Amino acid sequence: MVNQLRYWMVGVGVLSVLVATSARAAMTSEAVGEFGGEAAVKQWIAQGESVVLITGVRVDATETGLAIAVDADKPLEIPSTSVVGNALIVDIPNAVLALPEGEEFQAVAPTAEVALVSVTSLPNNRVRVAITGVNAPPTVDLGVTGAGLLLAVTPETEAAEAEEDAIQVVVTATRTEEDILDVPRSVTVVPRETIEEQSRLNRNVFEILGTTIPGFGPPNQSDRNNAQTLRGRDVLILIDGVPQSSNFFGAAGFASLDPSIIERIEVVSGPTGLYGSGAAGGVINVITRRPEEALSIQADIGVSADLGELEGDSFAYDIGLGLSDTDGDVDYLFNVSGRFTDQFYDAEGNRIPQNNPTLSGATIFNLFGRLGFNITDEQRLQLSASHVRDRREVDFISDPIVRSIGGRQRARTLDVDLSFDELENPGNTTTNVNLNYTHDDVLGSRLQTQAYYWNNDVTDFPFDDRGGFIDAIVYGPFRGEAFGGRLQIETPIAQPLDLLWGADYRNERNENIFYVIDPVAFDQDGVVRSLEERTWLPPYFVDQIGLFGQLQWDITPDLTLSGGIRQEFLELQADDYTTFFGDDIEGGTVNFDATVFDAGLVYRPTENISLFASFSQGFSVPGFFTFINPPPGFSIEGGFEELAPQKVDNYEIGIRGRWGGFTSFPSRLLCLFRTRRFSAKYSWNSP
Prior knowledge:
By secondary structure, the protein is mostly beta strands. Helix content is 11%, strand content 52%. The radius of gyration is 29 Å and the shape is elongated.
């Protein structure tokens, strides 16, 4: 109750800030309405003498393109330029419009190569000149004419093929769109071309990550990432910003994701708290494809087999169909695919035994859909959903007799051909639903919101532990379920200062059920039949809310300083339960909090080289394995009272460059990280 009250207090505080901002904007709007047009602008100017009044705009055709003259009552500051799509953007700071023709200037198709020239006001005393090319963004030379500016525009007649590579934009490292050279972190981008190339050899996404991401663990033909770490620590895996891991179990089912729906993969190496817990080693964000501008239909058929003697039962088959289109303000993408694998073989033609994580003998089904709607030029609503399901036939397992043979032995297969009586075959099922809304101008700020639902069901092979710790044959599903949301707001405080702030929320439920299997039916007929159901991991909830703020200061056009803080509130709750071995445990609620910081500095001595230094912290909440077999007298509140999140500090210095139309991997001159604090209780007692 106390923790819930704290959440409400935090929520009320955030709401108060929004209400105050809204009221302030409303007062400004009323003042402008009272005086109207140029009078309102002049009154605004009177309140700040340094603001420049732009009084006229002229567009004239020249032999090489266009000449755009911007007249002002005082000298203008040097504007900044950027490119968005086919538009060249020129942002003039510390200025407002006072034009005879109104609050906006437009010149439609002034030449055959230029589609539009527009001049508009932006919040916080800025004016934007946007010059949109027909085929590609034009170039511009800036010149000073008295108190105004002269823009000499040269259109591009052909689209620049390497433009996307020349300026590589990433979103994961800062939660906003940034040129990769402006990011003070080690960032790796795996583009779509590389993903397509890798998927010709192996469609397991974990295999693709393991062969393309520096510092990520090697691939192991697994359907989960338990054995794969980034820089030796746990990694947080996201799909379009939605976490794919649970508190108790690693990301499962993700390996079966169809690579054809992936646009690119962004990797932030090293601990970060920007997305909450679980990123002690870094973040891997899989960004799915966007719909094509014109109707596009794609069909895929593939066949593969293990090397060796090309055994008949080593062949795998892939089939897929994709549809994508954009029609006015509506766009959509739909993809369905299937994969059918059989047995795995090593290079010498020996069958590799099936094991819990492997995807041999699997039937894999993938479904992905996305629907987007541009409400206005500044607002977009988008819904996406994915469903991945794989089920495995258990024909062979590892022969247990090999363990009793001395020396180093090769694993051998044992023909079992298990069948499952009223129980599902081993496999994974993962469902993601993701709703996004963006608004580019809410009281001068950019708003992004996200609501999501995630569900994961994992069932491993039957485990024969007769005579061991469990002393039974057990089989059953792990179930993880979560819903949550993200709110982030980009607020320009002043021309050189930008603030990113917001909140993340996630409510997660985990449990693991074991069925005790009939040993007679298992031994004599190879039938997996349940005798009774017991709790292995009781249902427990992890409730998280994180508040964050990130400030970026452009000290000069070549030097940027950034820093931020995140405060995480986490609550663990479980009801009374009975363990697998029959012990009664008292439930309860425990709170865990963590505060992490980050700071970064980027210096660009040239346009294509950046030097960076950064400090960052990440944290992870341990998995609560003690639930399974707690010691005598254990209770939730008493047993976990000393448990605390793990914190990791990371220091990094590096250089990153862009040469020959592509962005290089960053060269790190120094990279240090250390565990700052870790406290946990763990017990595993025989009954």
